[in-house]
TrEMBL record:
This is Extracellular solute-binding protein. It comes from Cohnella herbarum. Keywords: Signal. InterPro entries: Bact_solute-bd_prot1 (IPR050490), SBP (IPR006059). Residues 32-51 are annotated as: Disordered. It comes from the Bacteria. The lineage of its organism: Bacteria, Bacillati, Bacillota, Bacilli, Bacillales. Residues 1-29 form the signal peptide.
Amino acid sequence: MKEVQGVKKSKWLAGGLALTLAMTAILSACSDSNSGSNAKETGGAASAGKGGDEPITISMMYDDNPSYPYNAAWPVLEQFQKLANVKLDIQPTPDADYQNKLKIVLSSGSAPDLVSYVEHPVYMEFAQTGVFLPISDYMDKLPNLKEKLEKYKISEEIDNWTLKDGKLYGLPFMFESAMYNTAPVIRVDLLKKHNLQAPTTMDELYNVLKKLKEADPKGYPMANLNGALGLINLSGAAWGIGPAYNGFLYNSDKQAFEYAYTSDNYKQYVAFLSRLMKEGLADPEIFTSSTDQWKQKMATGQSVFTYTWISELGQINADGKKNVSPDFELAPLPPIAGPGGVKGPSAQRINFAYVIPASAAKKPNFDKLLEYVNWLYSDEAINLGTWGIQDETFVEKDGNREFTEAVKSSGMIQKALWNVGASNNNFTTVFTYDWFSKVLNNPLVDSLTAEANAKNWFPSVAKVPKLTPADKEEETMRSTTVHDFFMRSQEQFIYGKSTVEKDWDGYVKEINDKGVTKLLEIYNNTLK
């Protein structure tokens, strides 16, 4: 699910936040007496397995990031096991090939009791085979999960993880609410210097980039961080070509799927980028720059406009003030309007799921396993998994939490949390808005998020067709061919090897013949 998933995210903090955070000193070990949460619980017992029972052992497949390798001595992990009265038999699996190894484990029939970080394509492939436990059949034993789903009003996204049989087979990893943490970003000091207004439309953006190019002919005003799909993920909704499922949009008025990349909106998109490239207004490496190269271009003033995470700006601005000018200031903007309106990136709030193999239902400790899963969605577990250890990584006063001075002064809040085992996607089921806001530590995110909600900047999530196994097999056979041709053709249009004036109709016919027509038939049949 390429466009739906968006830019590949850190396995420890989905949403791209990990791109903004570097290494810092390791926090000291924390006392077992600090639980990390005093919050009240919802929907049943606060902790699983309490009451003097012996702890049960739960085996778990764990996505192990080499930058933040698994550590059995993490204080947060120790507290998870203590509070839930369980012993976790962790099976670390290298992140680099996790999804492929996951498929092997699921096919073997010997999957552990709990499997973390199952991405949507793998989930959909195996959920229909009977390998996963139908979570929706056990919601009466998961009141904390049920309460969170209702509280967060996340049914639109849950529908994408619900199969045609009406059942949910995964335990969702969720963000409490949408956040405007990616945006178009521009050098506002240069706008002021050259008496220019911040662009609000794509035509205005073109004119501003042209003026800035005239002021610095050696530069390329627009740069890009995350390749061709990354740019579509961040700007596509404004162009009316996203959010998409493998390039396919659901038209709610027509109640049908359509292919975005043969639409007039997409034609305008590639024509716009082609014009920027031809006139030297966009970086020739717009689809190939590495993160370090992109940062260098932005921090040295070679480029002055981009789409990125707002939390990236602190370090780039610091470098720019030192290397370019004391007035250097990159600042985020509201969405720049295009054919799709004033829309930012998708407010997608479920990035992956945890799963329980169906075979677990036959094990003697199955009820205890469900108690543990229910506890994972409790306030106690969520707070421990995000904020960490009370008085070590956070303090609480009058019901409000703040990170400790040691964490805030470390320079990298996220890494300080990783060092104690917090903010770990393998254990944490929910990232709350308040916590995420304080990790980002940028008041602009809060103010722009409030504006985004008030002005409806967040588009609906992409609708995912509910495919049968036969449909999925057909999709797999055709979608790679379609995607490869789309990517190759997009590059040719943007770099001027093809033109929309001469080559558009041929492109549309060929990509339809290569599989778009058949895929549309499959996807629209799922709606009947």
